Amino acid sequence: xxxxxxxxxxxxxxxxxxxxxxxxxxxxxxxxxxxxxxxxxxxxxxxxxxxxxxxxxxxxxxxxxxxxxxxxxxxxxxxxxxxxxxxxxxxxxxxxxxxxxxxxxxxxxxxxxxxxxxxxxxxxxxxxxxxxxxxxxxxxxxxxxxxxxxxxxxxxxxxxxxxxxxxxxxxxxxxxxxxxxxxxxxxxxxxxxxxxxxxxxxxxxxxxxxxxxxxxxxxxxxxxxxxxxxxxxxxxxxxxxxxxxxxxxxxxxxxxxxxxxxxxxxxxxxxxxxxxxxxxxxxxxxxxxxxxxxxxxxxxxxxxxxxxxxxxxxxxxxxxxxxxxxxxxxxxxxxxxxxxxxxxxxxxxxxxxxxxxxxxxxxxxxxxxxxxxxxxxxxxxxxxxxxxxxxxxxxxxxxxxxxxxxxxxxxxxxxxxxxxxxxxxxxxxxxxxxxxxxxxxxxxxxxxxxxxxxxxxxxxxxxxxxxxxxxxxxxxxxxxxxxxxxxxxxxxxxxxxxxxxxxxxxxxxxxxxxxxxxxxxxxxxxxxxxxxxxxxxxxxxxxxx
Length: 545
Prior knowledge:
Helix content: over 70%
Structural class: mainly alpha
Order of helices and strands: HHHEHHHHHHHHEHHHHHHHHHHHH
Strand order of the largest sheet: 1-2
Distance between the termini: 49 Å
Radius of gyration: 24 Å
Low-confidence stretches: 1-6, 268-274
Shape: globular
Number of strands: 2
Strand content: under 5%
Number of helices: 23
């Protein structure tokens, strides 16, 4: 009886922990989303007569285009470097992760300044073929899809490559032993096994695209998120912005649903990171050169080219008379950015591990709903999260005041605590998705064996689940850390007085069209983001050996 009571108490504890985590994420969003219960007919009527229909169509096309592009590119590159031997394959194995360190808003203004109507590429093109010569429209929806695809495909690449190494190698070898050709084995055996990882990566990509409002504005693309930011920034009408933001939530729920459909009922029972990977086939002749050219072109277009351009601008600005404004504040901006990254990664990883294990030990229905609710925070635009967190802290302050307690004023109005809370609401979902993928690979029979031997759920999680899913935990930390480093809207809204970060520095300069002067802080963001990316690449290479 005592044992049964203990097991039930443990199950309830895990379920409760995941529900509390979900509430901390959902409450700020719900406080704004509740405004839809009292809709403003004038706001909806005015939006529907003007921009809203076009924004809905454009958002849908953008999401589908970026999802398809990143899934095809990320999965294809992961398969290429995992299954084939060609010139430079090991170098490209980690270089293809580099675009992960490139913020989309930086690649956006670099693309337009280089390939746009006034950029050097079109100037040269017209000098060769005449002023009326046709050139692809860069400032367009297609241009935005291409830019997002180049920056976001590493989300799919990372998860697909880890799945190919950890889950598909044994099944692929078995299929080949039974006489299946490489293409047939890949199509009928490997693809179904890595489908959950691809679906998870695609969902993260769609949510990342959905929340962006800076990059799409560079390309002249009007999405629902741009509409929300335009209303908030132009009128400061919190109610109107929150009502329109419910449409963004609708798109987010659709993305989550598509991810669940893509994941289906797939289950894993593989090595948990201990597999040796797929045995590579050696490409020869033109096939080897073609594989090298494809990987090289992606790396140059998505990372090397933009970094070279920024470097040239940064050196020229430092050597010139103008220089970079506020350069003496550089150490402070860097320190503030690193502080936010550290606290956000620490909290998001701990919470993600707790929720992922709660799905194994707690009530399946409650923890599954909690997991889906947490994903909502990633799909809500940063300004909406920021306002929601402010309202939450003010409500907490009011509640404490009613019982004779009080929060320090700076906590509710702007502090590192509030900022980290908002970052956690925003970035817990990608970390949880990666950790869930890793814990899901641990066979349930292994968990049951540990419990049969007397291990408590916490001990099973610590000694079995976490070690076997450590590659996914590391991926989660990198996903959260890089996203936190690049985040702009929330820190603009909630930062304490004097707490500027590198993205804020870039934004202030870029908003004044001082792109070349923004090169130094932009490069700094990329360099700092490269540190976890290099650690991740070493992890992947070490596991592949």
